Amino acid sequence: MTAPPRTPRVRRFGVGLYTGQKAGGADYADAAPLAVAAEEAGFDSFWVTEHHGLPDGYLPSPLVLAAALSSVTSRIALGTGVLLAPLHHPVRLAEDAAVVDRLSGGRLLLGLGIGYAEHEYRAFGVDPATRGARLDALLAALRDAWTGEPFDSPGLGLAGVRITPTPTGHLPIWIGGYAPRAVRRAGLLADGHLVGKGERHIVTAASEQLAQVRDPADPGFTRAVNVTCVLDTDDGGGTAARRAFAGQQRVYERMQAGREVYAGLVPDPEGAGSTGGDGLTAGGIDRHIQASGDPDQVTATLLTLLDDLAAWADVHLVLRFLFPDPDLDAQLRRVRAFGEQVLPALRTHHAPEVHP
């Protein structure tokens, strides 16, 4: 009896997320040496992200920065994790993504999401109640736009529009989000789903939801997971990383609580009665870290996650260890340490083959 064909396995690993945040203003030029270091360390992708109106210079223009990074790198994929799609005009987004794809030789991974901060929607004059419908319409419009032929998108108010240039080939679109509707949207309409927080129960829930609409053995669909990592090193790198990450998390929680941008999604960590360690609602930064410890401990956690995703043909882990830090050299050391002490073991890990 002939054995059924084996499902091919693809396992890739990225570096994320570059946000550009710095006390006293951002220096986006730091992204270039970090992307080069990630490429030299053997990683497959480098990720940037997007927010607007934050006082520490959080990156507002991920595709602009990705275009710049395309000129200093040659192999590594450049990902947006995520671009806040409903805030962007569909024609401009289609054009800019195609230009970055061409500048990079087809290395763009276009991660899209809907965001949560109300102030961003107000700033762009977009009704947040329409964000899901806008993203649905945008996904179809991007595919039509990149054919180079005139197309209509009534839901976005477009008629007889032509987009040039077109991408070099099939430009992958991944959708981020936790809600069941967002996960289902990714499974039905996109080339991949990006989990923003690599906790096992979140990844498992997404797997169960995606498997209802997408075959895990489909090589054309990517399971991508952001995993926040801190590597404890002899030079105190872990302590510095936790300190930098705590500062970043405070920015998120101030935004979500509404101290600066009125989102009101979490309690004010600095309000009356707050007992959170590090000024954080969860009581300390370690609760926001999924993989920490020495290289063996971090690697073991990541290998467990890969095993959890063994049924999926294409898996892309984004190791999130770039936190806002005024010391570029410290950031570069983190990239090299992960490349030397963690990445090789991930490369040699072979998930069990799964027969269809």
From TrEMBL:
Provide the Luciferase-like domain boundaries. Answer: 20-304
**InterPro entries linked to this entry:** Bact_Lucif_Oxidored (IPR050766), Luciferase-like_dom (IPR011251)
Give one Pfam family, short name only.
Bac_luciferase
Coiled-coil intervals: none
Protein name, UniProt field: LLM class flavin-dependent oxidoreductase
Source species? Pseudonocardia oceani
